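Quick question: what would this complex look like in 3D?
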Amino acid sequence: MRTRIDTSLALLAPAGLVLAVAALGSQLGAVRQLEFNNALVNVAIVVALYVFIGNSGVISFGHVSFVAVGAYLSGILTLGAEQKDFVIPTMFPFLRHAHTGTTFSLVLAAAAGAMFALVVGVPLMRLSGLPAGIATFAVLGITYNILSYWQKIGPGVTSLSLVPESGIWTLTGGTLIVIAVAFAYARSRFGRRLRATREDPQAAQSAGIDVHRERLYAFVISGALAGFAGGLLVHELGSITTDQVYLELTFTTLAMLVVGGVSSLWGAVIGALAISALNSFLADAEQGVHIGFHLQVPSGTRLVTIGVVMSAVVILRPSGLTGGREARLPRLRRG
Amino acid sequence: MTFLQSVIDAIALGAVYSVVALAIGLVFGVMRLINLAYGELITAGAFTLAYLSNEPAIVAILACFGVVAGLALVQGFVFQPLRGTSPATMLVATFGVSYLLQNVYFLAFGSQGKAIGTLGGLNGAIAVGSLRIRWISIVALIAGAALLAVTALILNRTTVGLQIRAAAIDFRTARLLGVRANQVIAFAFLYSGLLAAAVAVLLTVQSPLATPDFGVQVTIFALVGVVVGGLDRLWTATLGGFAIGFATSLVGSELPSSSSVYLPSVIYGLVILVLLLRPGGLFAGSRATLAERV
């Protein structure tokens, strides 16, 4: 009985929390709502990261490239032809003529993320530990470099703008889909096998698990979710630059995952919401805010504080706020 | 002749990169930790030089060494608890500290950067035949070679060098035989800091503007060189650092800018290729591997 409740809580608690956040956000004014939208999209990206990093125990600095590809594809597809002539005059003709609605562009963003992850993952999933970290970082560097300069596929260093913006409930729906897929994957036999390789690669291999293949499955699913989340990101912001999907996003999303607890869906959601809240609060405080007294901190405090929090959590409590456990009923301590 | 000139500049930059690679390899040997926050040591040195531009050069340089060495010791102290944790944890932690320090610099000094006047005279050139060789190229080359030689002497001829080498081979056994873990780690970080200060002095002559991300690019590229060369041994790591510095400088000056903007992609692609085909590094023996593969 208790196990069954705990199993459903592992899905219902994160989904419920996201819904509650969305409901709260939808009651607020437009400016404040932007921060909630941002938090919801962060949850989607961090959960996508969790699917691979959390279940495999292998670090990836490269997921933001899938976010970037999803964001650019989804953004470009939803622009009208004359808008494209204005924003991206030098683009390939087939991209110029392609046009879809937001929903279908999100599906294509997920497909693009999955394809990219497959191409990258086939060779790279043989690596683990330090080489995996460096190789995925290299993938991020290449994506950033090409997106910044190749003006046939995007606007280069200038901003991709005029993208239609989505409301809070569309974003919430997208985030809930990401959470549901992540939950289903973790409960599936594939997720269990991959976690076995995380705990002990040799033992898992000797039990007949193909480590490379299991990692690749997770990487592709996680790439699809990251591409999808990228689509959400561009429709949340309405515009995007390559710098917005590079080091800072990599840093903040990894910080969210680590602070919440890498190895659980609950940790990913908690971490994303907690850091987003801290982020919004500090952004306010940089402008000056009243919390009983007037608080004004210098501009830049935001990232410094988040850096301190992340570094402190990694060094002092590597399993994160949730200890890497799923949401569950509080347990009585057995005597 | 301009090609020969590019080659000389490339050798000089290669010397600087090899020093960075040496420092990264040294800390990695002792702690199995890639310090992604190494570039922020160089940046600290650059800002120290920038703020002491009006002082005599020797004062500014000594202060630069002092500040950077101090910060390196702090880094060593902060990273000490990470010894023995998973590579993923270490990467995330040093990545976090790197980002943290960059934002601290941003907060303290602003994003505009601060000009550095110290040693600007070294940008002058001497004519050798039709070649014009800048003083800084000569200084960088000599300083790089000297630092490598001194490091080799320390590692091979002193007690602390012996301890570092022992710790790099087998940390636990070294401790059992009386090597003090904290001291060796602290020394490795301190020494890597002194090297960072030297690199800061050399780099600021060529690019005399201290910005919060001053040390990032050289560190990323040197790290790439270390991985390409092979992390397991110091000399291969250093050679890799030299190769990457040499290659980027030469390609950057010889290619037209419409192609050279894609240089990072080529370099990152090369890294991935080396990691896949020769995980122990280009110059490593066939038996050496960086990690188990699946």
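Answer marked as accepted. Chain B has a mean pLDDT of 86.
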